[in-house]
Design a protein that fits this description.
The protein is α/β, with parallel strands linked by helices. It is built from 13 helices and eight strands. Strand 4, helix 4 and strand 5 form a beta-alpha-beta unit. The structure holds nicotinamide-adenine-dinucleotide (NAD).
């Protein structure tokens, strides 16, 4: 089954970015959002995204707006869709209600893929008419520029549905990974949460301030992590002896450090301090300027990675 029409359920940050990507690849996109402002928000995000998308693949000069429609209800957006991409609020009761409404019009062969960062496909599909086609397809923000899509099936998800989902996201030049078990945060956000816990702890313990924590990542390990994952990095850290040598030589020092990592409490005082330190480090640069800088850098990085020999 080929995917032509996609219903994007929720026209917020993630839904609008998915919509830009889907539209750029020639799909018909129907966005459902009860908020009237969602349409203007999505149109603006798509306009902003287009020149960036054009640098990464061969797409039309301008969006084909006739392929994009907005709907106040999920049922209207899902009619005749081949895939529904859930981008609604990250609450299980809302996701289940959105799926129930989608199933009133979504053709039975169509996939229901949730962008959820934290919920389980098994919980979302509980009570569904066709739970076998429900799965998690989790992007990273912004989905039109960060290629990763994490696929996770629930207890009732058909392997065939996961296979179809993988073929679809691969067709958009996404990099798909499959989590074999359902756990909060899937794969990538378990890793980012592990790092973020210590980023907060370092500030809480007074080891360094917010600006230096961020610099330590962005100009240190972050530069390598953009190119390769932690296992491969330590394979290289083992020199000619590779990963085994690294683990046998320096593995014990990793274990010592693991024992010393903190579990900070997000107290109001700590929140105030981190926000104040972050604001000070920004010295007035606004959110739109930051977004533009981030997106330009993501495009340059994605192009660099397209050209890398491995
Ligand atoms: N923000 C991120 O960094 C990020 C990254 C990856 C995945 N996600 C996931 O994507 C999903 C959306 O997150 P977001 O950041 O775009 O949130 P958001 O708040 O920006 O957007 C959610 C949108 O859903 C709309 N909505 C509410 N009820 C609805 C309904 N019944 N039907 C249709 N639309 C409805 C809201 O009006 C809003 O526009 C969440 O599941 C989240 O976990 C978020």
């Amino acid at each position: 089954m080929t995917v032509q029409k996609i219903a994007v359920l929720g026209g917020g940050l993630i839904g609008a970015s998915w919509a830009a990507l889907f539209l750029s690849r020639g799909h018909t996109v129907a966005i459902a959002d009860p908020k009237p402002e969602a349409e203007a928000f999505c149109r603006q995000l798509i306009r902003n995204a287009w020149p960036d998308l054009a640098q990464l693949s061969d797409i039309p000069d301008v969006p084909d707006w006739s392929r994009l429609s907005f709907h106040a209800t999920i049922a209207a957006a899902c009619a005749r869709a081949d895939l529904a991409q859930d981008c609604g609020p990250d609450r299980i009761d809302i996701k289940q209600a959105m799926l129930a409404e989608a199933e009133t019009t979504l053709p039975s062969q169509a996939l229901f893929a949730s962008s959820t960062s934290s919920l389980m496909a098994s919980d979302i599909q509980a009570g569904a008419k066709h739970p076998d086609r429900v799965l998690v397809a989790h992007p990273m923000n912004p989905p039109h520029l960060v290629p990763l899509v994490e696929l996770v099936g629930g207890k009732a998800t058909a392997p065939e549905a996961l296979g179809r989902a993988r073929a679809f996201y691969d067709s958009l030049d996404r990099v798909t990974v499959v989590a074999q078990k359902e756990r909060p945060g899937h794969i990538a956000n378990r890793l980012t949460s592990a790092l973020y816990r210590e980023a907060v702890n370092i500030v809480a313990e007074g080891i360094a301030d917010v600006a230096d924590v961020d610099r330590a990542i962005a100009y240190g390990p972050g530069m390598r992590w953009a190119l390769m994952g932690p296992h491969l990095i330590y394979h290289m850290g083992g020199g000619p002896g590779g990963y085994r040598h690294y683990l046998e030589h320096l593995g014990p020092t990793q274990v010592d450090r693991w024992q010393d990592l903190g579990t900070p409490e997000l107290t109001p005082a700590l929140i105030d301090r981190m926000v104040a330190e972050l604001d000070a480090s920004l010295s007035g640069v606004d959110a739109e300027a930051l977004r533009q800088k981030r997106d330009a850098a993501l495009v340059a990085l994605a192009r660099l990675k397209q050209d890398l020999p491995v």
